[in-house]
Amino acid sequence: MRKTKNNKKTHSWLERTLQAKTLVLIALNILGVSGTLACKGDKGSGTGVSSFASVSKDVTIQGAGATFQYPLMSKWAQEYNRQNPNVRINYQSVGSGAGIRQLIAGTVHFGSSDAPMTDEQLKEAKMPVLHIPVTLGAVAVIVNLKEIGDRPLRLDGSILADIFLGKITKWNDPKIAQINPEVPLPDKAIAVVHRSDGSGTTFIFADFLAKSSEEWRTKVGVSTSLNWPVGLGAKGNEGVSGQVLQMPYSIGYVELTYALQNKLNVAHIKNPSGEYVPPSLETVEKAATIATSLPEDLRVFITNADAPMAYPISSFSWVIVYRDQKDCAIATALARFLWWAVHDGQQFSAPLHYAPLPKEMVERCEQKIRQIACEGKPVL
Amino acid sequence: MSRRRFSSDSVFFSYLTLSGASIVAILAGIAVVIGLQSRENINRTGIIEFITGTTWDPVTGIFGALPAIYGTVLTSFVAIIIAVPLGFGSAIFISEFAPPKMGAVFSVFIDLLASIPSVVYGLFGLFTFAPFMREHVQPLLQGAFGNLPLFQGPPLGVGFLTAGIVLSIMILPIITSVSREVLKAVPTPEREAGIALGLTRFELVRGVLFPSSRSGLFGATILALGRALGETMAVTMVIGNRYEISSSLFAPGHTLSAVIANEFTEAGTPQYLSALAGLALILMGITLLVNVIARILVLRITGATR
């Protein structure tokens, strides 16, 4: 049925698939199909309402994107719906890249991503886009070194870059030994494990390495997938941690929430103030206190944030929306939901192992959310 | 009366035609869409460079498919080498040697093996089998055949060999149950004739059963090969996902389907997506090639019977 219907408008359909993977994703995800239909229904009824429509009628907000945000977003959706029964938030964790593409294709009301949109993607979007950081993420470096026991391993950006470039190959390398005088380091080869699937975690990690090492920046670069100089690829956080846990003398990186939930052995990383900082909710929150110095559009990484006790491999995770919304009922509901998320919603962060936004950051988010407009007027 | 029969016949006939045509239409549709999608990248790099390139760098937009093609072919080859003798052996055992009740029980086990989801095989491979390979099998192989290029490099546990073995377990049920049916289909008079001539059981299998079921056994192998070529989840968990060509079976590698599954959701640029579609096209091409070759071989073997 779907097939024949689509074939009739072959041209536009093909073009759309070329630009975005939307249809494939929808085909893969039955929920997605019902979701999109529901969204269209809402739009249809929404146009009948005047532009000052309150959110009193039922609306369903469609969102898609980062898998990282999924547990928090589900909690938010559930809580917000409990407090505002007429607003439903439907979030599909399809990955950051797919979230951005779905936003550009117009199949969702908001996208979410662990990496900001690139200039190229912004051009593709044609209309102004707002990046609203809703929570914080971080990358923890995990090691399998039975010799060190409970003592934390210390590492810095340039050593990490050299390890992942394949230039430092032994655990007892003088560079590692120098900053770990109390830790007995074995004369063993380092086994590098990285993500094999495209991931925001890889993006953040690579961004940190690129800031720490010129060679990394020019030879490897920063992206969700990389051409890795060395190491094994493993799928997902669970794949990387599984591989590291069962392979002696290995090193890998996972999302902080995953490391905390599974109580993995994490390395302390040197920040610009020269402190070796363990990854934790507090140290990640510290990294976001540099909010006031951030550029207007908030499309920025806060890796290597220059703040005391700030964990250097931290990052925002964004919700991305169009500034000028077409449907006022949706726009109002969306803006109110986001406002709630960066204020009241933050209390749900810590129990789920997300770092809450510091107040400096919340103020920046407020400015952004106030810009959401419908028919030329801000909706809040 | 005859009018009615005619009309119901024609309804039935058009239903069958439609069913048949839909298979062709679906396949052609997929091929066309993937072909169109892969154009952007191929236009940029050229088809030869895409197929023979060995670098896969999403950052700079350089996409070469060869290491993935190599990994796909090599792991499937390893799987077939292991699974074919094992599968044929157990099929012969079940259909010819085992007491009927025992054979039935064995068949149930084999069908159960086939119904395990591939992600379970993958997790089993990653958490149980890979460490076992690293600590026991790989050092043993290296000790015995350490000077062969096949067994070079540090034993990592994951890699071509582990992926091939996990794949062989996954395709074993296909080979076994299809060849079991094929062997059972050999007419009883032929068996009786063989026994009447005083053939031993081994001679019966070699001289009577194999020749008359050759094309079917070959078909079982091709069916299994098709599964091995396309298998994704289990392979990506145990192959090491390293984009490299290595002659060593211990080395980590990558396969076409694994690259697609890993990178599809986060592929940000149109060229990147298009390169992944290109990999899918190559995978379809390989499968098609395998099937065509298989058809030709089957025709040769069975001669003019078809």
Query: What would you report as the Rg of chain B, rounded to the nearest angstrom?
Result: 23 Å
Number of strands of chain B: 2
Low-confidence stretches of chain B: none
Shape of chain B: globular
Using a beta-carbon cutoff below 8 angstroms, give the protein chain pair with the largest interface and the number of residues from each chain: A-B, 42 and 44 residues
Number of domains of chain B: 1
Q: CATH superfamily assignment of chain B?
A: MetI-like
Structural class based on helices, strands and sheet pairing of chain A: alpha/beta
Treating each run of at least 4 consecutive H or I residues as one helix, how many helices of chain B? 11
Q: What is the CATH topology assignment of chain B?
A: MetI-like fold
What does the average pLDDT of chain A come to?
A: 84
- Percentage of residues in strands of chain B: under 5%
Q: What is the CATH architecture term of chain B?
A: Orthogonal Bundle
- How would you describe the oligomerization state of the chains in this entry? heterodimer
Strand order of the largest sheet of chain A: 2-1-3-11-4-8-6-7
Order of helices and strands of chain B: HHEEHHHHHHHHH
Helix content of chain B: over 70%
Largest sheet of chain B: 2 strands, antiparallel
What does this structure look like?
- Chain A is of the alpha/beta class and 380 residues long.
- Chain A has 2 domains: 43-136 and 315-378, Periplasmic binding protein-like II (D-Maltodextrin-Binding Protein, domain 2); 138-288, Periplasmic binding protein-like II (D-Maltodextrin-Binding Protein, domain 2, 3-Layer(aba) Sandwich).
- Chain A is 42% helix and 18% strand.
- Chain A has an 8-stranded mixed beta sheet with strand order 2-1-3-11-4-8-6-7, with helices on both faces. In chain A, strands 5-9-10 form a 3-stranded mixed beta sheet.
- The longest helix of chain A has 18 residues, at 30-47.
- Chain B is built from 11 helices and 2 strands, in the order H-H-E-E-H-H-H-H-H-H-H-H-H.
- A two-stranded antiparallel sheet of chain B has the order 1-2.
- In chain B, helix 3 (66-97) runs antiparallel to helix 4 and helix 3 packs antiparallel against helix 8 (201-230).
- The radius of gyration of chain B is 23 Å and the shape is globular.
- The A-B interface holds A 3, 7, 14, 17-19, 21, 94-98, 100, 118, 120-121, 189, 191, 196-200, 220-228, 231-235, 239, 242-243, 246-247 and B 25-26, 29, 33, 36-37, 40, 55-60, 62, 126-127, 130-131, 134, 154, 156-158, 236-237, 240-243, 252, 254, 258, 261-270, 273-274.
